[in-house]
Amino acid sequence: MGINFHSPQNKYTYANRKVNQMWMDTIARMIPMNQIKNALDIGCGGGNYSIALSEVGVDSIIGVDYSEVMLEGAKENCRDYQNISFHHGNAYDTGLESDHYDLVLERAVIHHLDNLSKAFGEAYRLLKSEGYYVIQDRTPEDCMLKGSQNHIRGYFFEKFPKLIKTEVSRRYESHIVIDLLKEAGFQEIQEVKLWEPRRTYNQKEDLLEDLRKRIGRSILHELNDTELEELVQYIDESVETEENIIEKDRWTIWVAKK
User: Fold this and answer.
1) Which positions ≥6 away from 153 have C-beta within 8 Å?
2) Which of 29, 56, 171, 245 is the most exposed place for a label (fewest CB within 10 A)?
3) What are the pLDDT digits (tens) for 192-226?
4) Do residues 194 and 21 lie in contact, with contact meaning Cβ atoms separated by under 8 Å?
5) Tens-digit pLDDT profile for residues 85-115
6) CA 24 to CA 80: how far, in whole Å?
7) Closest CA to 116 of 63, 168, 193, 172
8) CATH class entry, domain 8-144+167-198+249-257
């Protein structure tokens, strides 16, 4: 079935989640943030990471998304941040100025793209000389880790193995990402693995309700309502902790320099 990013009912599915400090600290270790004055957040969704960039000191951020519905939600989410603006465009063709930005971020974007070379070429065009390109996504290896009290996502594939093919087929191996970055002209490529805290739930029922709403999890749109409820019951039985559940996802982050 897949998520419809243009549907008003999904307007807030990626908005209003506070980015964990661990993400900001990781980026700051990989990039000299004191040199970053302006940035693009391509595929910004609800604008959560645009806010994170603002909070680590970036003066000006433009969030770019191909869904006008998502941009509406992002504008509401970021209304208190005067240094964040938004632009309708996509990873292949933003329509923005060349050689202008210190940083381009694409978080959880490349698994939606079938032409990485074109997207990487657009990022290269946008960046100033010695600007930084940050890509964050899951590799197939990241996706197939077992479920646990913290890694809730792993249970999705244990309960419904049919999701594995969908998930793995849209993920890129790290060596492919690195090779295509080099072909696009990028240098000094770094790679790190990050167990990023996604959210802390005071009660397990809060987690289960989040799953029922498919909040921020596009893979759950591959399940019908009956299957989704079966998954919720499975996770309820699998997660023994009833309070203070810290959900984490394993990601790969690549940082490259123009």
Assistant:
1) 143, 147, 217, 249
2) 29
3) 999 999 999 999 999 999 999 998 888 999 999 99
4) no
5) 999 999 999 999 999 999 999 999 999 999 9
6) 19
7) 172
8) alpha beta
